[in-house]
Queue: 2 jobs
Job 1
Amino acid sequence: MAQLAVENVSVAFPLYHAESRSLKKTVFAAAAGRLGEDSRHRLSVQALRDVSFTLRTGDRLGFIGANGAGKTTLLRTMAGIYEPVAGRITIDGAVTALLDPGQGMNMELTGNENIRLRALFNGYSEARIRQLQEDVASFAGLDQFLALPVRTYSSGMVVRLGFAMATAISPQILLMDEWLLAGDASFLDKARHRLESMVRGAEILVLSSHRPDILLQWCNRLIWLENGEVRADGTPEEVLRAYLPPEQFDHAWDAARKHA
Amino acid sequence: MVDAASPFRYRQRMDMFPSGPDAAPADAAPARPVVIAASRSGRERLALAAADVTGMARLWPLVWTLSLFDIRLRYRGSLLGPLWLTLSTAIMVGAIGLLYARLFHQNVSGYLPFLTVSLVLWNFISTVASEATTCFTQADAMIRSIRMPHSVHAARVVMRNVLVLGHNVIVIAVVFALFGTAPSFASFSLLPGFLLWLADGFAASLLLGLFGARFRDIPPIIGSIMQIAFYLTPIMWNPSMLTHRGLSQVFVSYNPFYALLEILRGPLLGQGLDLAAWHVACGYSLGLFVITGLVFVRARPRLPYWL
């Protein structure tokens, strides 16, 4: 039984401009007794405001919203990268977060070395590291390239490597940002196939996307984020009807039907 | 309530081939839920900080491999590879040693082993200090894509420099063999001394790394502090030279770098156990641990926001 509960989570990013990054300014402000006021009046961006929802096995949640609405920040917070300023997140289950194509890879290291690092992070034995390397090589179609530094790869190859690496591990809770759905057509088919089986396997899926047809196909619940707040929470059909202009909704609805 | 034991535990449960021949039984252990809360109380923060460090210990193979790759990357494609570390230290020690032995009116057979040990050990201290200030800012891509104990990045700086030290020990061994220098009976204290170095290096990396991430002018400040410390600390010169000239011992007695150097350098050069140096070294280390603990407990959850 996997479960993911987000309770009253707020996240604020402090804005560090050149001034507040400076040690000199901070020390002088402290000496002049201004620090207290400074920290209370510090400029920050409220990225998430009092967001709450609970997901259980079988839930397929989508996020939709304009750029900067807080979708990626919410995914990062759910992955435990940003610890919230207020509220709490309870994660019960193995999480994989596919947040950006680089996946924290070191561009100077070779593909194989990056795979090894990822495997060690997951506590794999030597035999399983080799299995993972073979698995990634065959799926990403990068065979000889895996011995070369990642910085020599094309951007598409980096996406393929990152995708293959992350999806070789099947999680109980899968957090995905929409970059996964970019790539060349032949790889996209393969990726979609793998992702669909992974999505079927995962107990909980959370997906952030701008593509209404994908959200309609893959999700059974949708949250519309606006300025870091939950604007609407319901079935994909309800939320998209409210979010999209009618003709775009019909278009997406047809596209989703056609694929299904 | 914060579940201190397992904020990183869920990673261990990921299982790629659950039915494979070597499916790790450890993965099957029922992991408790991970709770990430806006931890307000001191006890919760302390528990999370402690979990960060134990999480790092559990990921030791990762720390080791990251450090190894760092060294390998630095010398990728070069003819001698990491042996360049050994060679450049040897050349530097040879050149400086011969000149300064004359300048300071010292006997080469006594001065060169002293200088070799001093420079190699100082190189470790100063490189850890300067690399520590960027240990988190340079790992920003990793920190922002996966939840991982932050102390992994601090331990990586220390391990990387232990590997460099390992290459430089060859130079010490060669110089000792050439000049017949023999470590003293007090060499048993080298092991606790080195462990203290590792602990200090780790604490300093955490502390300087956090400050370096928050305040971007820390790296150049630490750079100049270490440069001044190099000249004020008995590294190139011997503390006995101060007494010969009737100068005060103030740069020696309360200098944390001198105490740290001396607990390893003394026994290596055949001197007895220097209890005064040990006291100063332990005192400063304790202070460092307390300050690092306080800063880390407070600043740990904020680190990803600073990158």
Note: Chain A touches chain B through 58 residues (CB under 8 Å).
Job 2
Amino acid sequence: MSTPAKNSQSPTPGQTIGPFFGYALPYEGDADLVPPGSPGSIRLHGWVYDGAGNPIPDALIEIWQTDAEGNVPQAEGSLHRDGWTFTGWGRAATDLNGHYTFSTVLPGASEKGKAPSAAPSFGVTVFARGLLDKLHTRIYLPEHAANAGDPLLVSLSEDERATLVATADATGLRFDIHLQGDRETTFLTYR
Amino acid sequence: MTAPTKKPPVETQADLSAEIAKIEADSEGRNVRQPLLDYPPYRSSILRHPTKDPRHADPETIELWSPCFGHSDVDPLEADLTIAGSNEPIGERITVSGRVLDGEGRPVRNQLVEIWQSNSAGRYIHKHEQHPAPLDPNFTGVGRCLTDDEGRYRFQTIKPGPYPWGNHINAWRPAHIHFSLFGRAFTQRLITQMYFPSDPLFALDPIYQSITSQQARDALVATYDHDLSTPGYSMGYSWDIVLTGPSRTWTEPEEGDL
Ligand SMILES: [Fe+3]
């Protein structure tokens, strides 16, 4: 765990990703942490909404996760995927319907044996035109036994908790992101 | 493919500037170093900012690490944005370089830096971009590099132009380069914009002004660096980036480590 810095430098402020990242940041295979349809793969997908309930067609979602065994990946190759190396990181721009899709595997718990143990989750960053800085959140797995003891999940109200847990569907998981509104996603800042 | 229909803006720059000044006055004395997510002068933020404060979380192990990028990901030639076409792009050649540091001033080594920008006429290669300025067949405005052992990045490019946008009547963005950065931990992920010194559009721009601390705003402005200029060829700008957020315990690199 990090220790607080004595001579800490001021952080560089964030700024919006703007509308024109679409030709710069997405790349072929960006959202395929594993080849779609490969053994053990799941689709992780959802829609991103604004406060009026309209889908956001110019958002960028990134995930960062452990592998299926709970190991932290430290292999390069996210930008030129070879189809065999699991790098744990992926990027998906939303389409014109505000929909994003990843092909990946379920993350394993990274802190096994710790009590109360953290439940496995995907780390998520959200960027969008109109959003002046990044947002962090997590995607937890539905019906996972460890959710009941997860320090973050237990600290939340039932409604807030519901915004962080994906729902299972035929091909994997669905997780919608609401930047605002009744079902506003619970966003995170780190201690 | 249909672009979203947009109502024409009715607010003038004077309306916007009054809103900007009011928020600035209201935040006097509060040293908020990050942009206000709820910043109505940037009209697109109105329906796209969370209304609740973020929840404090202890980072998970995975969040204390960052994805790893390497030489299989990035070709060193991607740091030169002036070689994409068969001819030189139009515009003022510049070198942009600086260091990526963590909150304790330590270099962020071997990490991915991505940039994108308009051409010298203020035009992006983007299908929804309507600005009637010319495209440059020799300039895509996209670059990538990895930081070196000192955390240093370096791009060869041309100076981007200011461009109009639809926020209000006569809205123009100050010239900027978009930067995407990874730190030593996922908590430090950053996307931001680098500006050029003394831009007359700073006072008028709601995206830049969404950061209400002048000191923090200054941190987004590059410095003209004569030592970075290449005689007879290009002008130099230096800009350092500080990424903060919790990360795992720092270990000094050992002999033989990359
Ligand atoms: Fe821009």
Note: The helical segments of chain A are 151-154, 158-162.
